[in-house]
Amino acid sequence: MSQLRRLAKIYFIAGKYRIDTLVDKSRLPLTARIALAPLKLFGKSGRSRGESLRCALEDLGPIFIKFGQLLSTRPDLVAPDICAEIKHLQDNVSPFSAEVFTSRVEESLGGKVEDIFAEFDKTPLATASIAQVHKASLHDGTQVVVKAVRPNIKKTISRDISLLYTVAKLVAKYSIDGPRLKPVEVVSDYEKVIFGELNLQSEGANASLLKHNFENSPLLHVPQIHWPYSNQNVLVMERISGIPVTNIQDLKDARVNFKNLAERGVEIFFTQVFEHNFFHADMHPGNIFVDVTNPENPRYIAIDCAIMGSLTRDDQFYMARNLLAIFNRDYTQVAELHVRSGWVPKDTSIAEFTNAIRSVCEPIFERPLGEISLGHMLVSLFSTARQFNMEVQPSLVLLQKTLLNIEGLGRQLYPELDLWATAQPYLEKWLKDRYSPKAIVKQFKNDLPDLLEKLPQIPPMIFQALENLQQPPEDSSQSQVEKIPKGLNKTFATGAVIAGLGLGLLATQWLSLLGSHLFIGSIITTTGMLLMLIR
Known about the structure:
By secondary structure, the chain is of the alpha+beta class. The protein contains 23 helices and ten strands. The strands form three sheets. The chain has a four-stranded antiparallel β-sheet. A four-stranded mixed β-sheet has the order 4-9-8-6. A two-stranded antiparallel sheet has the order 7-10.
């Protein structure tokens, strides 16, 4: 019943603001056109279409507001008049009362705001879909901001998530694309993300790690968290001084180099994703400011680290190689990587998939590089891959969203941004460094504790392998050992041990040149013996 009431509210708001006028009804199925027909009874909204959409999203709540925030960063996808209006969702959400904010802070920190802070401004500095921020100062004079979550927001989000689950299950059950899109898994991932935003202590921890990753960096500054005044319900952090990235005229007045600013944004993205494997996944313009102290080399300031993302090593590898293959117009490799990664079924025809990819990408590459949108290309590529049952990868949803945000922001700042020229050398260097001898030794040292833990199990496994070679299985008719002359069993086992010893000694010598301990070589020796015996 609660979901039906929510659906009724959505329908009412759609009619109130005449959202149906934003849709080309001729492309909708008959059932959808019939469902939208009664909305005409509400009459005209009296607002522009951009304002109508913004007001509807605000009335529908935080999940829908975040959707609007994403749309506002894509002027290449959204009409200019709509984009100009919904960008106000980024920091102009209606505030809740200062009295409620103050009581939440006092309850969480166990004291009066007058005692905790030297100054406390009861006028909101900024309001967002999830939380609200006020200015304050500590008793040592440090300028800070205080952040607290909106009241009753958890109940609202729970209701909307429940509704999304219902829709996702219907899509999974009745849609032809249901299994491929994995709608339930996508909603589950989003549920974790948005509920994570309600835990301000988690946001503070994310900000601290991101700050550590960019310590003394000329690219990005992250505000410091004041932990003695922070917990799950309240977050107190350094008050930053910068120009909102959307204030283009102010940035021009500060003589900012927009080309450098846009390219630095792309560099920050790829550094977070591939070098740190920890990226800010909510980089809409409302969360980004610019430090113009050095206008020729401006530095970004990032706030609101509630939503962060990371990838597995396999995801990193396949994403980097896919992007490089697209840059190099190697469509066969793109197709092969999709198959190897499991994004499309293993029995997919490489030739057919390659031809489909080529038909999408080649017309795009005929345009000047500065006009090519990587976001557009990926959308087109994934749409084409639907023909080959490509499955949505929930682990990559945040990355795809962030890439769209970054490219949209870069185009706003510097329309001639050549994303390819910025990204390609970075990815090539990352792949080269990943497989350098130094990186391999580092990875081996990281895995060493696990090897040491399993070391005592190796000798019994070796002896068991030797016994298995000497004693064929009962069903000798199917035994592979029977194919080996009996007199060669011992010879084979002895040769395997000798080969394993040789492999280990070579590894020992190589590692000793790199300053590794001889004991590491002995582990590889034993492991080599086991592998040879098993083979």
